[in-house]
Amino acid sequence: MRRFENKTVVVTGSGRDKGLGQAILQRFADEGANCVVSDLGAPAQHMGAGDIGTTAEMEKIASELRQRGAKVATIPCDVRSEQSCEALAQKAVEAFGSLDIWVNNAGIGYIMKPLLETTASEWDAVLGVNLSGAFFGTKAAARVMIKQGRGGRIINIASQAAKSGFPHMAPYTSSKHGMVGLTRSTAIELGTHGITVNAVCPNHVTTGLGAKQNEYFSKLLGFPSVEAYIENMKRKNPLGRPGFASDTAAACAWLASDDAVYVTGESLNVSGGEEMH
Length: 277
Ligand SMILES: NC(=O)c1ccc[n+]([C@@H]2O[C@H](COP(=O)([O-])OP(=O)(O)OC[C@H]3O[C@@H](n4cnc5c(N)ncnc54)[C@H](O)[C@@H]3O)[C@@H](O)[C@H]2O)c1
Description:
Layout: E1 8-11, H1 20-30, E2 34-37, H2 55-67, E3 72-74, H3 82-96, E4 101-104, H4 120-148, E5 152-157, H5 170-190, E6 195-202, H6 208-220, H7 226-236, H8 245-256, E7 267-270
Parallel strand pairs: 1-2, 1-4, 2-3, 4-5, 5-6, 6-7
The protein binds nicotinamide-adenine-dinucleotide.
Nicotinamide-adenine-dinucleotide binds at residues 12-13, 15-16, 19-21, 39-40, 47, 51-53, 77-80, 105-109, 129, 157, 159, 202, 204-205, 207-210.
């Protein structure tokens, strides 16, 4: 299927190898979209070592997308800055002539600590990227889409942690629950412009971020190894496995397609049945 020919998709935080953002862009590339790879590019204070989508990694991802036949631009953006998000939206239009699909995917999830040890700056760091970043991204995308006058699709990558609580993850869980509220409010406001806003809530996917969570929780819960922790995760899942990045990508493609034209304000679980509300 080439459902997104002549459409432009921007995915924030998509410059990290094997991340959800990369998989989402691969899916859109395979369906004909012009792709914007966007990430921090350079080290930033709020990021843990090795967690950043670097300029080199962004270029590598872009070149793989070109090999799949897509037109691709790489545009750095720090989603904590409203100005940076506005510039990303503008540059996407300059590169391809339109902006049709925007995915708020950038996120940090490596700060895991008991509540009483979590500092104010760690709280701000997580909320600043995961929730404020989605807010700025939504505003920037909506501004352009409203001006274009032909609707659009905004998709927020939330999490299973948007629906259920998790220990040692108060900032992350709060940020992801917040994304559900952002999705609902903005869906109502932007509906009159033909712009749909939805969230996707994946369960565990072993990306760079996911691997850190596996490591932390396997120790916290007393599993003898990360592998034993993953085996337990599989046993508990109705469909018998953790999520794949391609599962999230497929959900994004559906939400961006004409088939989902009458779906807005939803937060869709993509969790193999682990989460049902
Ligand atoms: N992996 C999972 O199990 C899982 C499950 C549910 C939801 N999610 C969500 O999916 C999204 C992608 O996560 P992932 O697992 O692919 O992790 P990842 O670490 O591979 O990707 C996150 C990306 O966000 C970027 N980023 C961080 N701060 C940024 C900023 N200020 N501006 C721009 N980019 C920034 C990072 O550089 C990185 O490339 C996140 O929002 C995460 O919370 C992941």
